[in-house]
Amino acid sequence: MASIAFVLNGQPVTVEADPETPLLWVLRDTLGLTGTKYSCGEGVCGACSVLLDGARVESCVTPVGDVAGLTVVTIEGLSENGDHPLQRAWIEESVPQCGYCQPGQLIAAAALLAEHPQPTDAQIDDAMNGVICRCGTYHRIRRAIHRAADEMGGAS
Ligand code: FES
Ligand code: FES
After folding, report:
1. Nearest-CA residue for atom 4 of ligand 2
2. Which one of 54, 79, 90, 141 is most buried, by most CB atoms within 10 A?
3. pTM for this one?
């Protein structure tokens, strides 16, 4: 066990954990943030995506020891009241179906817009490629990202 300190959704946190423990388990089981989902557990589906210093990572294959001193943002930290432009666009475009993949989709979209404020369809497809949606919401995700980019000003 080790004391591992990082910044989570804007707040400093310290957890006692085996450094090899997947970040996903620490988020869900130790810290109670269950918005980040477990699906494949192998770094393949993207459901467990979080932002690590602004980049999307799969938290199921990220040892918590690797995030010491870094900044983690989960779906709970994307906005205070669920009103991030991406979250509003998701509602406007009726993106979610079963919803299970959607926290990961929103995290991936946030990382994309941070890098490309007015992304092309190809950039969207490339960035969202790592998050699988069994319900096939990809076309609505693309529309919602364009909508959010426009609302956010989109100057690249
Ligand atoms: S649960 Fe982490 S990538 Fe699938
Ligand atoms: S909305 Fe069901 S898996 Fe994506």
Report:
1. 133
2. 141
3. 0.96
